[in-house]
Write a structure and sequence with these properties.
Chain lengths: 328, 329
């Protein structure tokens, strides 16, 4: 792995408001390697979706990228003009959102939407594009794709619609797919199917996936690595198994303990006191310090940076700064 | 079985989903009905947590609403502590009504935004005449402390609280009439996991402290596993299986229960491949004949397409499946 497919460095996203500027993302850094599935977890307001929107250049005004850079194969994409961004969005970066009804146009048939996307980005003829669309629907598991392609989105069930959205996201053979809560609106039995489809079809094509979700179970099964966000900052990044089984950041440890699992039956779940701070009241130093069971004086004044911990792990916590690597 | 606090007997509910009369006449369509709950029977024992799980459209919330009296059943009856609730008139119902409460999913919708927290919690106390004057205020302060908030919070409005704190307020209100039985409809689905853990822990503590009985409704099997003693699995308005929690998770009998358990993403599942889940939930307006699960069932036989399986006692619970009945499972 020489150069990462996507590289995000010190990304800052700000929203000016009447009462001052809110920092939704504060120096977020991570990489996604080619063909890799990176999970992005965090509670509501942690900045997961904003990270996804920033990458595809779709941050709602008046929000803006106020610092840092985003590179796709080494080329900066955070400060390019909108018309160039449009040739990347959809073509090189595909998107799957939570609610399939909002990402499909209800007035056009599935065929029209798929063919338009394919022709816009790949320049095929109408007929070739249609063949390709049928093949795609077939791959995402729509039964009788050739017949159903001319149906409207409302003719499909929620799970089938999300399959169509995945087909649409992959229509232009993107290098990266950003999936923002792709299964949150679905029932568990359907969720399992959609995760399988997303993972398999991306693996087939070598597309990398940035999987944004609040569901650790989904991440555990799907992702290669996981980044844990807290209050607009990265708390920890590492291979998914390591982060789940041996979290290094006290927030991650608390988060994992608070999730009830099917296999173990603890009398009580681990409890993190309090709630995530609001963006206008992020504490000084480490954002987690008021809730942290292992807080030290330093945590209240200085913000810890992401420290490399070996084996691809990084953690932003002063507890680990003492032990050598990256010691100050 | 004398320790049953709530007994549900053959409960059914259908909804009229017909088009307006004129459309029906012009388009020559008959009336259309949706059977949300069909012939559901179970009992909830004093002091236990009974959970109902199922996917959307399985009838979980409809059952909850019928139990607390927000919906009238189309058939069957609900017996609370020996007294049937259907057909009970005003005064007797009021007395019964005091003994059970409900907690809803969305704490942003279930609290009146124009009322102060103190008034929200005091309302049931006043309605049921449990206290008056300064006593009400003391009781509200006590309840706020029981759920982990402060007496001073009574003067605030709901919008000043986070989702988790609002759910605590909803719990305080539910506790204010000193109920024995609380129906919890997806109480943590709108909350983040770390906050969910706080609320689930609180609910368990309250159960121990006040000897509460819970009917816990959720689509999240891991949460149900953590909370419930016994579990009923619903599919398209019918109970597929009722079992002790431990048994259901180690040895699910009904093919639907097995499929559901296989489908749940879990932290322990890293790198493991799940069994592929077949198909989707059918449209409840036009459910499959016989056993509603038969089009997705790996153990389907001819009989399953024709007859609706009855609930057959198995161990501590029951299973409604011909394959299990005939020993094919």
């Amino acid at each position: 792995m020489s150069e990462p497919l996507l590289s995000v460095r010190d990304l800052v996203v700000e929203f000016p408001t009447r009462r001052g500027t809110l920092r939704a993302l504060d120096r977020v850094s991570f990489d996604i390697a080619e063909g890799e599935v990176l999970g992005m977890v965090g509670e509501s307001g942690a900045g997961k979706s904003i990270t996804g929107s920033a990458i595809i250049g779709l941050i709602d005004r008046p929000g803006r990228i106020a610092g840092g850079e985003i590179r796709l194969r080494g080329e900066r994409i955070d400060n390019i003009p909108e018309d160039r961004m449009r040739s990347i969005r959809g073509r090189r970066i595909g998107m799957v959102f939570q609610d399939p009804l909002t990402s499909l146009n209800p007035l056009y048939t599935v065929a029209e939407q798929l063919i338009e996307t394919i022709r816009t980005h790949l320049g095929l003829s109408e007929r070739e594009a249609r063949e390709r669309a049928v093949a795609l629907l077939d791959q995402v598991g729509i039964p009788a794709a050739r017949r159903r392609i001319d149906d409207y989105p409302h003719h499909f069930s929620g799970g089938m619609r999300q399959r169509v959205v995945i087909a649409l996201a992959l229509a232009a053979e993107p290098e990266l797919v950003i999936a923002d809560e792709p299964t949150t609106a679905l029932d568990v039995s359907v969720q399992a199917q959609i995760i399988d489809v997303l993972r398999d079809i991306c693996a087939d094509r070598g597309a990398a996936v940035m999987l944004i979700t609040h569901d650790m179970g989904v991440i555990a099964e799907t992702a290669d690595r996981v980044a844990v966000l807290y209050a607009g900052r990265v708390a920890e990044i590492g291979p998914v198994r390591d982060v789940i089984q041996a979290a290094e950041h006290p927030y991650t440890a608390g988060l994992m303990g608070s999730i009830p699992t099917l296999t173990q039956t603890a009398e009580r779940l681990t409890q993190i006191p309090g709630a995530m701070p609001r963006l206008d009241a992020i504490p000084q130093g480490c954002a987690f310090n008021p809730r942290c069971p292992q807080v030290m004086p330093r945590c209240r004044t200085e913000r810890p940076d992401l420290l490399a911990r070996g084996q691809g792990r990084q953690v932003a916590c002063w507890l680990h700064a003492r032990e050598g690597v990256g010691d100050v | 079985m004398s320790d049953a606090l709530v007994r549900i007997e053959g409960l059914s509910r259908t909804f009229d989903v017909s088009k307006p009369w004129l459309n029906r006449v012009i388009e020559r369509e008959p009336k259309a009905f949706l059977t949300a709950v069909a012939d559901v029977s179970f009992e909830i024992r004093r002091g236990e947590t009974f959970a109902l799980v199922g996917e959307s459209g399985s009838g979980k919330s409809t059952i909850a609403k019928m139990i607390v009296g927000l919906l009238a059943p189309s058939g069957g009856r609900i017996v609370f502590d020996g007294q049937p609730m259907t057909g009970t008139d005003g005064a007797a119902m009021r007395k019964l009504r005091k003994r059970f409460q409900m907690i809803f999913q969305d704490p942003f919708a279930s609290l009146n935004p124009r009322w102060r927290v103190g008034e929200i919690i005091a309302e049931p106390i006043r309605t049921f005449g449990l206290a008056s004057g300064a006593e009400v205020r003391r009781e509200v302060a006590r309840l706020l402390e029981v759920v982990g908030l402060g007496a001073r919070d009574a003067a605030k409005f709901p919008h000043e609280f986070s989702g988790g704190q609002r759910q605590r307020i909803a719990i305080a209100r539910a506790l204010s009439s000193r109920p024995e039985f609380i129906v919890c409809d997806e109480p943590t689905s709108a909350l983040d996991v770390s906050v969910q853990a706080q609320i689930l822990n609180l609910m368990r503590d309250l159960q121990d402290e006040f000897g509460l009985t819970y009917l816990f409704i959720s689509h999240d099997l891991s949460v149900v596993r953590h909370m419930a003693g016994r579990i009923g699995v619903l599919y398209l308005g019918r109970l597929a299986e009722v079992a002790e929690a431990k048994r259901l998770f180690t040895d699910p009998r009904h093919p639907y229960s097995r499929m559901l358990l296989d489908a749940v993403p879990d932290l322990a599942m890293t790198g493991r491949r799940r069994k592929q889940v077949e198909g989707e939930i059918p449209n409840p307006i036009d459910p499959p004949s016989g056993c509603a699960f038969h089009p997705r069932c790996p153990l389907v036989a001819d009989r399953c397409r024709r007859e609706v399986p009855r609930a057959v006692p198995s161990g501590d619970g029951m299973t409604a499946c011909f394959a299990v009945e005939e020993g094919r499972g």
